[in-house]
Amino acid sequence: MPELPEVEALRDFLDDQLVGKEIARVLPLAISVLKTYDPPPTALEGATVTSVERHGKFLDITAGQLHLLIHLARAGWLRWKDSFPATPPRPGKGPLALRTVLTGGDGFDLTEMGTTKRLAVHLVHDPADVPGVARLGPDPLADSFDREAFAMVLGGARRQLKGALRDQSLIAGIGNAYSDEILHVAKMSPFKLTTALGENDITHLYNAMRTTLKDAVERSRGVAAGRLKAEKKSSMRVHGRTGQPCPVCGDTVLEVSFSDSSLQYCPTCQTGGKPLADRRLSRLLK
Questions:
Q1: Which of 99, 162, 183, 240 has its CA 20 to 30 A from that of 205?
Q2: Is this structure's pTM higher than 0.85?
């Protein structure tokens, strides 16, 4: 799933490509993709794009008085096209979910692989009209989100660190991959409780979060949209690297699997050398 660094790179790319240009048409091609119906996509025809923003993992394209909100979910992606075939594509065929064409003939496609369709597009007057945006917590890279604000977020509930970092209502934009990476940099167990953090721990975790995300944003900046996924994968230290050596200590990266996801960690760096127990078999190590 694209997370904050990749979505920020897409935002930066689209800002260069879209702002000041006029939208010719928006074509929803999958029944599941469009989550709003009033105003209709035709309301964007003739509107000029004025900005591209990011809210957590949402892209926000402003054109005229409307906002086109895009959430790529787990299997969605954005593909820029310099031109399109003269014949419109047939709805419901292949991974193509939505096409946006500019008056100059260029534009972008939204695609989604697999059978679980979670790619979401909303056309609204206010981004806050989208429930997923309205519930977002603060952006972890915002200047206003300092160490004290981070401490307040973590202090609001008794949570495991992995879950707290991924909760979009607490902190916007961090998902499964970067939560693994942040906790590896911080040398903390994914199952350590927020209530077990001391003041120095909070500072250390905050710095690890900011450094990890800032570095990832810088690596992604200027990378073509088609190569962002590969860039993300190649930069991971532990996420997605089960069985491989930890780049810090050389120990073997281990995994804990869940019904719909998994996490990766280094036992030497993060759990005092102890493998984490499967939550279905015994209590989790702290």
A1: 240
A2: yes
